[in-house]
Amino acid sequence: MANDVVSVRMMIVAKWETEREFWRRGAAFAGVRVEVTQAESAAEAVEQLGRAGIDVVVIDAEFGEPHRSAVAQAARGARTHPIVVYSAEKDSDAVGADGDGVVTRPTTVAEAQYLVDRILRTRLPNRVLVVDDSATTRSIVKKILMATRFPLEVSDAAEGAAAFARP
Which burial class, exposed, middle or buried, applies to 91 when counting CB atoms under 10 A from its CB (0-12, 13-18, 19+)? Predict the structure, then answer.
């Protein structure tokens, strides 16, 4: 997995060009290759989600509630099951239960890069090692981890010495 080439497709749904530009420029400096698509309206975003393999959707919280929900629901129905993140003002309340998270709207490219890197961590593969002397417990924990929306490579070991011997 360490040598895998990783790229992520990110959709930015924002009314204002300045916000879309911060996100695009921040994504350009991300730690992995990011292909950015953008939408100026909820209808455009819903249409793109129906045909493109998007991994992450960032939605400007300034869109009204019906529009935000329409985009989030389209994302939930997409084959890639993208992570949905709202971009809101610093003091904003949670924007809706249909998203996976809320971030403070970036005001600089450096802030956008920081946020893009953190958001992308949810889509990049991670290794998990489950260590327990009970095969049943290891099996249950592995099933729970594999059922998440996060890309995990799960393996197990029956004891600490075996865990340390793993690559």
Answer: exposed
- Report the predicted TM-score, pTM, of the whole model to 2 decimal places: 0.76
Sheet holding 56-60, edge to edge: 33-39, 7-13, 56-60, 83-88, 101-104
Residue 123's Cβ-side half-sphere holds a number of Cα atoms within 13 Å equal to: 26
Q: Which amino acid makes up residue 85?
A: V
CA distance 150 to 123: 6
| Adjacent-strand bridge partners of 10 | 36, 56
Tens-place pLDDT, residues 11-58? 999 988 988 999 999 999 988 889 999 999 889 999 989 887 899 999
CA distance 116 to 33: 11
